[in-house]
Amino acid sequence: MQRRLFLTTLGATAAAPALAQQKLSKEPNPQIDYGGFERLTGDVRQLRARRLLPFARFKELAASDDTLLLDARSETAFREGHIRGAVNLPLPDFNAESLDDLIGRDRKRMILIYCNNNFSNRRRPVPIKAAPLALNIQTFINLVGYGYANVWELADLIDFNDPKVEWVRT
Q1: Structural domains of the chain sorted by starting position, each given as residue range(s) with its CATH number in brackets
Q2: For the whole model, what pTM was predicted?
Q3: What is the mean pLDDT of each run of 10 residues along the chain (170 residues)?
Q4: What is the DSSP string of 114-129?
């Protein structure tokens, strides 16, 4: 009896992940696709690893008229300080229309991004975020997911007081 109970429990335990996966794959809302997000995240990981720029190269590329320097932090944080030349579209406002309005229809346009975690200051307007939740990661995934694949990210940790950063407040 004990052996049968153990095997039954073992079978139920082994089946639990499969059942959980089955339940997770069937989203009740067709406008939410966690599985699609997981696939996109996996697809973007290697691309992002090749698109990390040292600060000097980041600034050099940002100087081009054809390049968009995008700050996806909140509007309040952007007003409190940002890199000169950046434009603001907070990540929660990303959708096909808002990105098209800001970036344009050229899906190959170079887009440079940075976030709070690129700054060593660790205070407003760039308080540090938990590393796995750094805004760069989410912004990169979202831009690629909306079809803008020419995204490049600031790799370095910098001080916004460094004059080379050209930190401005609006």
Answers
A1: 47-168 (3.40.250.10)
A2: 0.83
A3: 46 47 69 94 95 98 97 98 98 97 94 97 95 95 96 98 96
A4: E-GGGBTT-STT----
